[in-house]
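Example 9 (inverse folding). The structure is encoded as follows.
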């Protein structure tokens, strides 16, 4: 069986806190910043170098889903990271939410476990 393999640059994990601010810190030390980020619920906020806004994540996921739709009728396996996949699931279930409400809904969704399969119908 001939299987095509491609690497898509936009499928990387969502980094919402600047990595330098969390480096060499225990999870508990970063938890107040994590909580504040999600409570503020600002889809345009960028925490610093190496971080991206929630709006940018949604844009990357939408571009990826457009690429997938262009290949309709084919079975495609996309390997990515939990938050990226979660955003894709949410966008297929609630595509018309504004970005602030999408961000709130995103935070309530369970993240997939490592190696978990999720089937999305993009038609």
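The amino acid assigned to each position is listed next.
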């Amino acid at each position: 069986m001939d299987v095509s393999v491609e690497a898509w640059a936009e499928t990387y994990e969502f980094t919402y806190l600047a990595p330098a601010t969390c480096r060499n810190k225990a999870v508990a030390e970063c938890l107040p910043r994590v909580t504040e980020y999600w409570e503020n619920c600002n889809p345009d906020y960028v925490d610093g170098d190496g971080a991206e806004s929630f709006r940018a994540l949604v844009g990357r996921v939408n571009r990826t889903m457009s690429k997938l739709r262009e290949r309709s009728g084919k079975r495609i396996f996309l390997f990515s990271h939990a938050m990226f996949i979660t955003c894709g699931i949410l966008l297929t279930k609630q595509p018309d939410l504004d970005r602030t409400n999408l961000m709130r809904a995103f935070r309530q969704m369970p993240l997939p476990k490592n190696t978990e399969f999720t089937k999305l119908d993009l038609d």
